[in-house]
């Protein structure tokens, strides 16, 4: 379900600065009144995992640059009207009538601004979310940067963890003939936690002997059951895991002591056995 926050009106480029007045500047950037007020600003909006791919809908009128120009618009979100602390979303927009930030990006922004650390902090209370636009002409950035006026959505919340939080245990283990669980059972000592970077998972320290066979798997050998790829594993080098149907076991090529890392990029998962002093 998409969140539709319709705007009162949409107008095209203005012909004079009188119609597009300059407001108070912010950190050296001029502020211009070009973002339309949302009609549904008072409607309660709960962002959930189910509607996370939906969007908010905003419209604006383009600041007048004195010539025909294609401007880039980015949405900035804050929980305070003065924007002392704000997050600029990465998605760029080019059509003043279709500025549609994704719900998941909005949820992540308000969770970061609220200091959410885990699912224990959710659901968040409904609160006012302030929005403005950052406009710029990419091909000629000098003297083309403007901030819009501020509008608000007065009852916004999220009930799922939309941000990446490091140190959170996940249902993923090194399972194999390991010292503490030679029967391949999943145990906390061999459980991954979320890493410092998004889409990374780590075990801070693990030992295994040369010749040990293992896999990266969840507790029930379910969707995460990853094994040996096309080449032998080399300690200290990234190794692309085979995530196909029940792949073969990975074999440790030498005695190992160090951290275990898994990284996902473009749908592929990479394993790294990183040796370090005990």
What does this protein look like?
This protein has 278 residues and is mainly beta. It has one helix at 103-114; strands spanning 22-26, 29-32, 45-47, 72-78, 86-88, 127-136, 146-148, 151-158, 169-176, 191-194, 200-208, 213-217, 225-226, 239-240, 250-251, 256-265, 268-275. The chain is elongated. Residues 1-26 have low confidence and may be disordered.
Query: What structural category characterises the helix and strand content?
Result: mainly beta
Strand content: 25-35%
Q: Please bin the fraction of helical residues.
A: under 10%
The low-confidence runs, each spanning 5 or more residues with pLDDT under 50, are 1-26
Write the element-wise H/E pattern from the N-terminal end onward: EEEEEHEEEEEEEEEEEE
- Tell me the major beta sheet: 9 strands, antiparallel
Rg:
25 Å
How many strand units? 17
Q: List the total number of helices.
A: 1
Shape, principal axes of CA atoms = elongated
Between the first and last Cα atoms, what is the distance in angstroms? 50 Å
Mean residue pLDDT? 87
